[in-house]
Amino acid sequence: xxxxxxxxxxxxxxxxxxxxxxxxxxxxxxxxxxxxxxxxxxxxxxxxxxxxxxxxxxxxxxxxxxxxxxxxxxxxxxxxxxxxxxxxxxxxxxxxxxxxxxxxxxxxxxxxxxxxxxxxxxxxxxxxxxxxxx
Length: 134
What we know:
mainly alpha, two-stranded antiparallel sheet, de novo design (two linked rop proteins), 2 strands
């Protein structure tokens, strides 16, 4: 893996950023815009994915980073479930559902691979000067 200097360099964060943009776009019009509860919850879950990657990257230890990445996986699962709800109540077309689901699943898989990498590289994140060799 190439050295990652900033959280913005992580492919998973870039995927999460695009996912968040897609969620906001999907939830701002039509019946979806009137369903404040589901729209807000989906927005919060997508923002949580993006934010926890960043917060974990900036944390003090590799153990904390992995803990944050676990939260990212949980939020991605939550968002995938909500994407199903939005499709089932016809807020999302099959095409939009597939785009959102695929992007969310991609982010989740990227995080899983990153967690596996960190497990195999116990010193990938060094606390002295916070260097991430992932």
